[in-house]
TrEMBL record:
Pfam families: DLH (PF01738). Transmembrane segments: none annotated. GO terms for molecular function: hydrolase activity. InterPro entries: AB_hydrolase_fold, Dienelactn_hydro. It comes from the Eukaryota. It comes from Neocucurbitaria cava. Gene3D superfamilies: alpha/beta hydrolase. This is Dienelactone hydrolase domain-containing protein. Signal peptide: none annotated. SUPFAM superfamilies: alpha/beta-Hydrolases. Residues 31-268 form the Dienelactone hydrolase domain.
Amino acid sequence: MSTGVGVSECCLSGKIQQGTPKGSEKQIGGLDTYVAEPSDGSNAKVIVFLVDIFGWKLPNVRLLADSYAKAGFTAYVPDVHQGDSLPIDFLQTVEPPLPERESLTMTQKAASTAKVGATLGPWLVKHREGVSKPLIDDFLKAVRGSPGAPKVGVIGFCWGGRYAILAAHSDAVDAAYACHPSLVAIPGDFDPIVKPVSLALGTQDSLLGMKEVEQIKELLAKKDVENEVKLYEDQIHGFALRGDWSSDKDKKAMDDAEKQGIEWFKKHLA
């Protein structure tokens, strides 16, 4: 029986990074796409970013795509929500960082949870798997079929993390990396994996408790395909993309998660 692991107010938390993305916007596979290219212009190794609920225009994801381009990858961030991502101002109005979250009263927590339900419920119905997965599959197919037959990796965050895992069910990609995925089904989303997959998970993620993490690790340990699960101490849901750069510990976790993905793809897209 599959255990569905859902979403919570943590999906709506985090910090906006400072900086100016250096890439451009293009149409790829029928979707508006942010493109960050390596200095040599090569598209032999492509990374497709599957975004969280805040979408392809979030500065954080574009700046991270720029970092992957500096590492030698062509990075694509498609608008898989088709203009319907949640507004960035939800980041702090719904859920504060971990220290503030822990100081909330029960009444404040209940109000936050109610607001999350009212916000996320209709959005998740509109962007359910039956709608979103075909868009993602078509985009990956278009990238895979582009000139030069590039090696293709996929990285996903939160909502997009699950779709990165699903992409590893077939030859749509050569490798996958999922950071704090949400809405995952255990064991249903992990049993069919046939491509190398890496996971970055926080120990304080309210969506994936340690019980679920251990279940995932046990499932992956039985597979012949290479995989890894790295835990980040005291990190909450969304840490790899929306961590607090003013905190040395949180910034290190973000940097280490970025390094984890780059090393994974350098190995499996070689």
